[in-house]
Description:
The chain is α+β, with helices and mostly antiparallel strands and 457 residues long. It folds into four domains: 2-78, no CATH class; 109-224, endopeptidase domain like (from Nostoc punctiforme) (endopeptidase fold (from Nostoc punctiforme)); 305-380, Roll (SH3 type barrels), CATH 2.30.30.170; 388-456, SH3 type barrels (Roll). Helices cover 25% and strands 31% of the residues. The protein has helices at residues 2-26, 33-78, 83-90, 109-119, 138-150, 158-161, 368-375; strands at 166-168, 178-183, 186-195, 198-201, 210-213, 221-224, 234-246, 252-254, 265-268, 276-283, 286-289, 294-297, 301-303, 305-312, 319-321, 333-334, 342-349, 352-355, 359-362, 382-399, 405-407, 418-421, 429-436, 439-442, 447-450, 454-456. β23 and β24 (439-442) form a beta hairpin. α1 runs antiparallel to α2 (33-78) and α4 (109-119) packs across α5. The longest helix is centred in the first third of the chain and has 46 residues, at 33-78. The chain is elongated.
Amino acid sequence: xxxxxxxxxxxxxxxxxxxxxxxxLQNRGGINVKKxxxxxLLNILAVSVGFISFNSTIKANENEFLDEWVAExxxxxQAGFSEEHFKKIMSIPMFPSEEIxxxxxxxxxxxxxxVNKVREQLGKPYAWGASGPDSFDCGGLVKYxxxxxxxxxxxxxxINQEKYGTEISLNSLLPGDLLFYGDRGNTYHxxxxxxxxxxxxxxxxxxxxxxxxxxxxxxxxxxxxLSTEEPAVQKTFTEVKKTVMxxxxxxxxxxxxxxxxxxVKVSSSSSYKGKVVTITQDSGSYGYSPELKGWVDKxxxxxxxxxxxxxxxxxxxxxxxPVPWYSGIVHIGTTSNxxxxxxxxxxxxxxxxxxxxxGWxDKKAFNPELQKAxxxxxxxxxxxxxxxxxxxxxxxASVLGNxxxxxxxxxxxSGYVKVxxxxxxxxxxxxxTQEAGSYVYSPELKGWxDKKxxxxx
Length: 457
């Protein structure tokens, strides 16, 4: 630091000489060189005293700076950084954090997740070897963001991270790309590109996660870990064997689980209130019923126990209801009009039995033998391990026919029902929005079709 002292002395002497000459020139005849020199020498004395004090301060600051440098170096080495990389990281230019440019940038879902997650880390401090969530080094920031945003595991360290993905041109950057600094195989820094010529990175000790325009801190190379195409949207259908009652919730009945690309409403569950049906396929919060010929929100159905017991209605005075009795329900009949009538109970829910051609009736209306047989029937609702995956597509096709059926599910799946024939649509152009093996789904035909009956474009 002593160089600063001597440098400033030279500047002062030059300034004094300049001032003496200026003094003489400005006062030709009013003041002489001797007097000007005397005035400036007094200035030198005053300034010299100040610089002696300044030099002492510089030496104190120099010692403090060296102590901090050594401490940072020890932390870096303990975190696995080499001395070479430590020096390069400490020499990263300091730029003020920029405002993020929000002009439109086309991004895939995963690119959007990466950019949003790295933005959330802005302002968090740098720490050697830290990988979040409260502090980061450069590689730790990349590791944390990719894991949290797209569940991609990356190792710590830029040299390890540069082995992932595919190298791409710096002229073809997309959001989510990793920008590396240093030679390949010996990088010392990395940041995440967010579009519009900007990256977010954790620079060095004493700074926070920040935004920088890469034209001021240009990377050596870049690598892409994210696909430029949207990941396939898929739904899994799981085969089940369940008996349910359609409750009083008014839910749509659709050709696909609601929200899937191409789904079409075909009916409403209110048309089947109280009816007992089977569910043969399950997908998230939706169930498929062959009797309903479609998918219904599970909030519109309730599991019951399937039975198959015959007996008679022995006692009158009990109401017949659209669903198991509750206070205020509107009755649809009474057992008094069906005394000694032979019936078949096909389901039970609590203390109520279901007779298909009548409705829900209190168990006490039936003969004792029937009651015992129904109550002894175990619940057989099960979920199997059989699954079918439907993948979202966006294609067109011309109908050939070839005597292929149109079905509510891919042909052969448990519960599929034929709803039409392709021969009735020969020559038509249709859209395809789902694919499962050798079958595709068309919203225009409201069903699944064997690919052999189509000319897919």
